Amino acid sequence: MAACRLQAVREQRKRSSWTLKQADILTLSLTFTTVTPETTTNGINIMLQEGCTSQTFGGCFKNLLEQIENITAQVFPLDTVTRVLNMVLNASEKISESSSSENPTELASYGNRVLKNSEKLISTLVKPTDTSTSVSFTLPTVEVEVFMVGPQATEMPRLDTTNSSVDIDLIGIAKNNNETTAVAFMSFNTMENLLKPDFFNTSDDTIKTLMSTVISATLPKTTNTELTKPVNFTLKHIREFNPSGSLSYVYWNISEWIADGCSVLETNSSYTVCSCVHLSTFALIMQTSRPPESDSLLDVLNLVCVIVGLVFFSLALLTFALCQWSPGVNNVARINICISLLLAHLLFLLTQQFLSLIRPHQVSCAVISGVLHFLFLSGFVWMFIEAVLLFICVKNLSQISSKKREVLSSGFLCVIGYMVALLVVGVSVGLVPEGYGSEQCWIKRDKDFIWSFLGPVCVILAINMILFIYIIIKLSSTLKNLNAEVSQIKQTKIMVFKTLSQFVVLGCSWILGFFTNGSKVLEILFLILNSQQGTFIFLVYCVLNNEVRQQYRKFFRCLCCGHKQH
Prior knowledge:
Blueprint: E1 3-9, E2 27-35, E3 41-46, H1 57-69, H2 78-95, H3 104-123, E4 132-138, E5 142-149, E6 159-160, E7 164-167, H4 170-177, E8 181-188, E9 206-210, E10 214-218, E11 231-236, E12 246-253, E13 256-258, E14 262-267, E15 271-276, E16 281-289, H5 296-322, H6 332-353, H7 355-358, H8 362-395, H9 402-407, H10 410-431, H11 451-479, H12 488-505, H13 520-531, H14 533-543, H15 546-565
Antiparallel strand pairs: 1-2, 2-3, 4-5, 5-8, 6-7, 7-11, 8-10, 9-16, 10-16, 11-15, 12-13, 12-16, 14-15
Helix pairs in contact: 1-2, 1-3, 2-3, 5-6, 5-13, 5-14, 6-8, 8-10, 8-11, 12-14
């Protein structure tokens, strides 16, 4: 029989600034009486000291661990174990925020003691049995499964938690012991605050990331712990998998992560299956190369170019909206190119500027990447429509006739321009919903999901290049038939400029993105050209358009006359 009384006062504050004071201290007082197999009674009182602050919390935490280490009772009720364990793990999570976190050796020491105390508490759930029985529970900080088999047990189920599972021949181990044998399997959600991936010592200077929860497998109250077969663990990846990284299955050894004695049997973008010849505390660690140091000049250039591009996108849209155009001019594709890319570049710029605030919210990050996917893709579809309209125009050596405009009406083009992009994004979300929300709040590169964007873009760029070449050849032959009185030099200059501008407007310059690896010049050229599509649209279709220039002259003339009259 066990009686338990809980008295707790807890007030949680934000991790960035918390102080434990007497009024809001994390306090848990457990007083219970336990009857051991020898029918002895033990009174236990475990609590976190009052008056702890962020500077003194290390000492308070040590005192808490010492109280648990001094427990002598062999059997505790489940309710008691869960409450004490939850208190220890919550307190350990705050250790990384205290002054003690500056000392890696002390962090590792804390980690060792937390693991030992957790195993000690879980071992008190083991009770004798002839067949088999199990105990399991889930806390915010840990998931635990304990399975016990006796001499008459015939089967051993798979031990599963949310992010991991284990296959172990507990029946074989029990036969070697001739008594109740148990396996305790724990999956810690916050242990990486103490057992950091940087404790994995390697010769390479790489970035180390914990790809799984920290798991622990032990054989509590078992005399002969020799394994009859290797143990297989399946660990789900809790972070984005980087195919170019090096994945290691490691176990904790006092002060560091070690990879000896374990091997990876299978791995993909979602999970990894490993095999070990011993039990311990395990984790998956991904090593990736350190990115090159950020080029501040390139970052500033990127920011300036994007802002300038946004300004000219806005000017182009204002011009298209305010000026009166000839009936034969179809600006629907150019207008929607400006709308799609203006929103896409603006959203991407804001996301990167506030990435540290957005990234912790995975759902928001995934939604933003999905919206960016739609906006950029719709921009490319509109570039394709613009290329087709120019192709028809040049082929007929005139503006699109009213009959053709009935076929290619603005409503029909809008359905194509946006529904194609929406369909691609919808199918992508339906097939791979976890494909959105990378570290940069963009499309994830694993599972080849990036091709949901690159695939349509490559097709559109290839078609646009073919149409662009046809348009240039057709216009070149047309220029030869111009009136001899027209200045060929002036006409050639305008032709060359409009040709280069149209190359950018149709998105053909995005092809440079496939060749920028290792070339700073191409990277800068790619950045400038593709951030200035709005600038070229404004110059070609607004500044160099005679009708628009005349309307601007009238507008400014009216402004001047109004000021003079005033």
